[in-house]
Amino acid sequence: MRLTKLHLAVVGATVALAACTPAAEDPQDVFFNTIAEHCGNAYEGRVTSGNPETDATWMNNRIVIEVRECTENRIRIPLHVGDNHSRTWIITRLPQGGLELKHDHRLEDGSHDPMTMYGGSTVTPGTPTAQAFPADEYSKQLFTELDATVSITNTWWLSFPDENTMRYRLSRENREFHVDVDLSSPLPADDFPPLPWGWEDHYQY
What we know:
alpha+beta, eleven-stranded antiparallel beta sheet, 205 residues, single chain
């Protein structure tokens, strides 16, 4: 087909426009950066889905998260449930792509709990507001060794159902557990919980 000057001009303009149009941002980068924007803040949360028997400790105590430590590729979020300061969520941007969520559990002396560093990595790009982390092989082996095989099919989710809420969700067959964190009201510094267990000197991972 013979191209006229008009055709060539249209093609040229289309190519130029495509070259100037920025590529869509990676949804996992957007998600990671959204959490990082809250670094240095602490917020209260509450259980919005759970079992009154097995989740009573969570339901009957104050829940506070701190977006406490952020680097280019890692965010550490201590989770406090009443006087229990054992838990930290670790979100990592992986070198090969994708995100990883790990649960670091500590004993009161700062040493690792036997049930620690379980979690998983994303297997899909997810969305800018929701990421899923199915249990990885390390976690499945740990759950088997510690007689917690019911957790082998766990999937953990972090999401932003709206601009003022961050949700932590654990799901598997016959199990739904949600904690919704209120991002609209950062806690004043004098209302922050004490340091998480193991942070007193240098938190080793």
